[in-house]
Amino acid sequence: MGVIVMPIFEYICQECRHEFETLVFGRDKAKCPRCQSKKLSPQLSVFAMSAKGSAAKSAPTNACGSCGDPRDPGACSLGDLD
């Protein structure tokens, strides 16, 4: 079974304060989708995975990509910690 890791990066634009997430491949640089600025502050992020094969069919489709929490992606966010 092959596993593909998709690098999801979260940013806050230093120019317009827009918060967004994006996929960044290779040497590409992220830019704000609202104002096109490349002055960004990276944020802590989780990752997404895609698995090929029969295991992918049985995996929960809405589970958190970081910990597997079945409540949805991001349900285990750092804001929930004591």
Topology overview:
Elements: E1 3-6, E2 8-13, E3 19-23, E4 40-43, E5 48-51, H1 54-58
Antiparallel strand pairs: 1-5, 2-3, 2-4
Can you give a write-up of this model?
The chain starts with a strand and ends in a 24-residue tail after the last helix. The strands form 2 sheets. It has a 3-stranded antiparallel β-sheet, with no helix packed on it. By secondary structure, the protein is mostly beta strands. Residues 78-82 have low confidence and may be disordered. It has one domain. The protein is 6% helix and 28% strand. The chain has one helix spanning 54-58; strands spanning 3-6, 8-13, 19-23, 40-43, 48-51. A hairpin with a 5-residue loop joins strand 2 and strand 3.
Largest sheet: 3 strands, antiparallel
Poorly predicted ranges (pLDDT <50, ≥5 residues)?
Answer: 78-82
Secondary-structure element string: EEEEEH
* DSSP strand tally: 5
Mean pLDDT: 72
Count of folded domains: 1
Radius of gyration: 15 Å
Helix/strand structural class: mainly beta
- β-sheet strand percentage: 25-35%
Q: Which oligomeric state applies?
A: single chain
